[in-house]
Amino acid sequence: MGSLLYNFALILKFALNIYIYVIIASAILTWVNPDPFNPIVRFLKKITEPAYFYIRRYLPFLNIGGLDLAPIILILIVQFVQIFIVGSLIDLAYSIKF
To answer: Which residues pair with 67 in a beta bridge?
Structure first.
């Protein structure tokens, strides 16, 4: 059971790392004017905009002079989840294993 939990934690860590790269790519795309019908642009917006919406709704002051800080806050939230949840799952897996 411990190894199953450990492997789940590693998969979750990998998925969160991929999501951070998606957030960064989405933020970089806001600096240019990409084609909104491009499938990659649509995918990135579809994946990140729901999270941005909640951040912008609860923290409306993050738009400073046209600079949107929602991606930075989202990266910090994902990093917190990665450190806290994944770390706790790995610790729990080690305690079950031994």
So the answer is: 64
User: What is the rounded distance in angstroms from the CA atom of residue 33 to the CA atom of residue 53?
Assistant: 20
Distance CA 7, CA 15 (A): 12
pLDDT in tens, 2-59: 888 999 999 999 999 999 999 999 999 988 888 889 999 999 999 999 999 999 899 8
DSSP string, 1-44: -HHHHHHHHHHHHHHHHHHHHHHHHHHHHTTS---TT-HHHHHH
Measured distance CA(17)–CA(8) in Å, rounded? 14
Q: Let me know: does 38 contact 57? Beta carbons within 8 Å.
A: no
Cα–Cα distance, 58 to 5 (Å, whole number): 33
Give the other-Cβ count within 10 Å of 9's Cβ.
Answer: 20
Q: What is the DSSP string of 65-80?
A: TTEE-HHHHHHHHHHH
Would the pTM count as exceeding 0.90?
Answer: no
